[in-house]
Amino acid sequence: MTSEEAAGVRYVLMDIDDTITTEGKLSAAAYDTLWRLHEEGLKVVPVTGRPAGWCDLIAREWPVDGVIGENGALVFWEEPGKGGRALRRYFHPGAVPNDHSVLLRIKERALAEVPGLRVAKDQFARLFDLALDFAEEEPVLPLDQARRVRDIALEEGARAKVSSIHVNVWMGDYDKLSMAEWFLADRFGWRPGAGDREVVFAGDSPNDEPMFARFPLACGVANIRRYEGLIRHTPLFAASKESGEGFAEIGAALLEKRGC
Ligand SMILES: [Mg+2]
């Protein structure tokens, strides 16, 4: 990335699991990087498969300008209100509540056909998607089992993406990218095309692929190499370090090239 490109960046978007977290924990270095990007005046927006319930906390307590959750089903952000702060919430018009009969059928089939698979423990905090855990907790299942779950979901007519920990399954026509584009345009006046190089996105896994394909300044943390064969559109830039350390490396490089 050149200094001119870095100077033109206005938005830094990032996946959460295994991009800013390391073995499940948000490291001090990664969290500090979020603060430094925020204090530089960049719009900081996590884009995650994590649930609505987590996004409520993140929007209120982290140094961010919004958070996109459940793989694009929703975005929460804070606005200064009259004498206080106000949490704003937008749900994708195509989002379908996760008690849908197709999702219930997929859950039954996947749990029966993939031994060791389980419903993610954060499922109670979700509004729209079904998260099936293959790697957040034990037993960690091989990626081909995650792919099998994804294929069951697709066969049954749902959408599905494999993250580094879960297979997320949902009804409705949206993904991380479509909600990110809507939010940047509606909230900040970002323009697709002309603004493409104003966005840096950092991610690590196949559910980040629409973002890698869309933004020319997208970055991967080093662990993205685990998914060779599952990702067709890889990011142009990759950190030498994995997970949170890699994100800190990406943030430091961006800030340094901006002369910070
Ligand atoms: Mg991830």
What does this entry look like structurally?
The protein folds into two domains: 3-94 and 174-257, 3-Layer(aba) Sandwich (Rossmann fold); 101-170, Hypothetical Protein Ta0175, Chain: A, domain 2. Helices cover 33% and strands 20% of the residues. The chain has eight helices and 14 strands. The protein has helices at 3-7, 28-39, 52-61, 101-113, 143-155, 176-188, 209-214, 243-257; strands spanning 11-14, 21-22, 25-26, 43-46, 67-69, 74-80, 85-91, 118-119, 130-133, 159-162, 166-170, 199-203, 219-220, 237-238. Strands 4-1-12-13-14 form a five-stranded parallel sheet. Strands 8-9-11-10 form a four-stranded antiparallel sheet, covered by helices on one side. Helix 7 links the parallel strand 12 and strand 13. The chain is globular and about 55 Å long. The protein starts with a helix and ends with a helix. The structure holds magnesium ion (MG). Residues 15, 17-19, 163-164, 204-205 line the site of magnesium ion (MG).
Quick recap:
The protein is of the alpha/beta class and 260 residues long. It has helices at 3-7, 28-39, 52-61, 101-113, 143-155, 176-188, 209-214, 243-257, and strands spanning 11-14, 21-22, 25-26, 43-46, 67-69, 74-80, 85-91, 118-119, 130-133, 159-162, 166-170, 199-203, 219-220, 237-238. It is built from eight helices and 14 strands.
